[in-house]
Amino acid sequence: MPSSIPTCYHVFQPCTLNTPLFTNIVTKINIGIISIRPGKIKLSFSATHLSPIKQKTTTDLNFEDTVTRFRIKGLVHRIQTLSSSNNKSQMLQILEKDPEFQTISDFNHLLMALVIAQQLDICLSIFTKLPSFLLVPDCCTHSIMIRCHCEKNDMDEAKRALDTALEKGYRPDAGTFTVLINSLCKRGRVNKAKEVFEAMGREGYKASVQAQNCLLKGLSYVGKVDEALEMLMGMKGTLLEPDVYSYTAVMDGLCKVGRSDEAMELLDEVVEMGVVPNVVMFNTLIQGYSKEGRPMEGAAVLELMNEHKCVPDYVSYNTVLHGLLKWNEVLAALGVYRKMVGLELEADVRMMGTLVRRLCKRSRKKNSLLQDADELFEKMKERVSVVDQRTLEVMVQALCVGKRFDQALASLNDMVTLGYSPAVITFDKVIQGLCAGGRVDDAVSTLVLLHASGGIPSRFSYDVLIKELNKEGRQFCACNLFGAALKLGVVPNREPRLNFMGWEELQGDSGELFM
After folding, report:
1. Burial of 345 by CB count in 10 Å (0-12 exposed, 13-18 middle, 19+ buried)?
2. What is the mean pLDDT of the chain?
């Protein structure tokens, strides 16, 4: 094992810190294409440690330098090309033999490119072999390697690497500490993150709002909301005045433990401070109210956003819609969906299916809702090639109740064509509705469709059909149907005969089928 295991450099922060705290430098990777856009902060490292081993050059990595950025971009592309045609051992051999890497700065470029390309094992292997190239890791090397350990989720090794670097006299910048703090917090190791934060103070680093925000987020993540709230209040009136991200982190923690009203108080405090609340802050509140079973208050947050000139986004509306459906506020959910359509925002298809089913069930008492369900159902079919079976079944049954038999038959045929096996009760509803409407032949065809799809018709369907055939005097057809039922092992209660009961009596005997 090498004597020092390096650390991560804060140019990579946007790759892992899913928070707006670190937006000075943006690194974007997309299948071999990387662009590094530096912010206003000048990034540099200096190596203060001397070694008897030959040190060819020690050039600070300055990411405001165009040549540096393009070289790393080229290396990332090369590494990803190698990874598609070589295994890791072959890649390592190729990179080791490359004469281009002669200085520690060259290797820092390579190590950084390997981390970006997620070739972490190769990065660690090359680091351990630096002495064979007569090179000594500098401060930048250590920072990059801390990042490598964080990416591998080896937080103990990352912390050990930082301790080793400090013992050797290196001084990684505050961004490196922040990366490590954030990685620890994301994995729920808040106590370790506190140790790193305290080490920053002992080493003479000025604490940053970014580092404290990481701790606030970590405390909220593990449920230590009161501690996070106390820390937030302690930041007020100091040089580390809390920003919008500080408040958002604590609000998120409060909402997750059912204290959304306190989170709303923090929002009011943010507004009083003159800080402009962002969409993430409002979305946090909406989600909190939904979890607490208060979806209407979550919907009211949408109006609050407009008051503060914060435009609700796709997440805002879908979160509200999910909460309203979860707590069965169907009509309010329909209203929110219509607003989304007006704003040309697409709702989640699964939630559209849920809304269709809820509207169908409500349409039994309020028939006008069937039209809304039908329109939404048609939009679903435009969005996806295959609608889920449950939504189709409920829609078919609702159409039968609404006496829209042609649509019901079309949807039932669609289900069979898609390879679904509709429940027998779905066929029963269609057959019952068609018989009630005097469409016995269509009802018989539906029975045949059920048999063709691999299902066995129920006794109720045979009873209904035989009853109607008897009423129409089609005794021969009734006998054929009765014989087909017996062949399938189904014994109908009704038999073909001249004396037959009326439809109303059959309904009274059999009862009604419900969705």
Report:
1. middle
2. 82
Among 448, 429, 456, residue whose Cα is nearest residue 510: 429
Instruction: Please provide the distance, in angstroms rounded to a whole number, between the alpha carbons at the two ends of the chain.
Output: 67
Exposure b/e, 123-133, CB count within 10 A at least 16 = b: bbbbbeebeeb
Crossing angle of helices 405-417 and 389-401, rounded to 10°: 160
Q: Is 45 helix (H, G, I), strand (E, B) or coil?
A: coil
Residue of 296, 301, 288, 218 lying closest to 257 (CA atoms) = 288
pLDDT digits (tens, 9 = 90+) for 235-248: 988 888 899 999 99
Rounded to whole angstroms, how far apart are CA atoms 280 and 337? 21
> Helix 120-128 crosses helix 104-116 at what angle (to 10 degrees)?
160
Q: What is the DSSP letter of 221?
A: H
Flag the least confident range among 23-27, 87-91, 399-403.
23-27
| Total Cβ atoms within 10 A of residue 476 | 10
> Which has the higher per-residue pLDDT, 273 or 52?
273
Question: Dihedrals φ, ψ of 33, to 5°?
Answer: -110, 125
Once rounded to an integer, what is the mean pLDDT over residues 47-56?
36
Closest by alpha carbon to 121, among 101, 160, 143, 91? 91
Q: Name the residue among 293, 266, 294, 262 with its Cα closest to residue 281.
A: 266
Angle at 323 between CA 319 and CA 326, to 5 degrees: 135
In terms of phi and psi (left: phi > 0; alpha: psi -120 to 50; beta: otherwise), the region of 438 is left
User: Is 498 a residue whose pLDDT tops 80?
Assistant: no
Cβ count near 501 (within 10 Å): 13
Query: What residue type is 461 in one-letter code?
Result: S
C-alpha 348, offset from chain centre: 12
What does the domain layout of the chain look like in residue ranges? Answer: 1-172, 289-347, 348-406, 423-515
3-class secondary-structure state, position 383: helix
Separation between Cα atoms, residue 219 and residue 56, nearest integer Å: 45
Beta bridge partners of 34: 29
Residues 223, 229, 230, 236: is their CA dihedral positive or negative? positive
CA dist 252 and 259 (Å) reads 10
Cα–Cα distance, 290 to 327 (Å, whole number)? 8
Is the pTM value of this prediction over 0.90? no
**Pairwise CA distance, residues 370 & 362, whole Å:** 8
